[in-house]
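Q: Convert this sequence to structure tokens.
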Amino acid sequence: MTSWADILSSRFLVFDGPDGSGKSTQFRRFINWAKEKGAHVTELREPGGTPIGERIREVLLDVAHEEMTVTCEMLLYMASRAQIVEEVVQPALERGDLVVADRFISSTHAYQGTGGGLPHEAIQMVGEVAVQSWMPNLTVIFDVDSETASRRLNPLLDRMERKGEAFHSRVRSGYLDQAQRNPEAYLVIDARPDEDTVFQALLEGLENRLKVRMSSPPAPTGSPSPQA
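A:
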């Protein structure tokens, strides 16, 4: 029987979803679980994850920067992403680690694309420069309605979280649209139930998706797969 450590080796997974979806809770829980199963895990957060990326994160999330344009947002996110891919993601996958990222290009398509109005083609072009061929094997979307999400958010909201209900409704639609257009690259999890139920659905979904792909090359290579 193939072990989880073997299944997860040299895989690149992204956990994503609207603010308040519980994504970060499931991210932490999954990483602890994967380590217990014997996987060597490299974890990332976006934006950030490197000294340069963390400085960019401070600028992006600072509530003092309300005048920041959506194009500037997109380019800053991609700049942080380019650094972490070259500095962290590529070496980790080449040595056989499981790489798990808290957000990736899917976030930019949802927030700056569907939410902010930037053309998805432009985001994809910049994304291909930023990450080259190092795209995720699977992006997990934790889907949640706005009422549930708002109950879960910290009252001390950052700049992105303060954009309003209409914006975040578009963001949710942006995530679901990506999954509908490219179902092989996405796994959508209903994040409304309790934490244990969501985690069990996550494990079942990953098992179904990853075990059947064991015969395919584990590390992302060649042209980036579409995220829009």
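The domain at 4-211 is CATH 3.40.50.300 (Rossmann fold).
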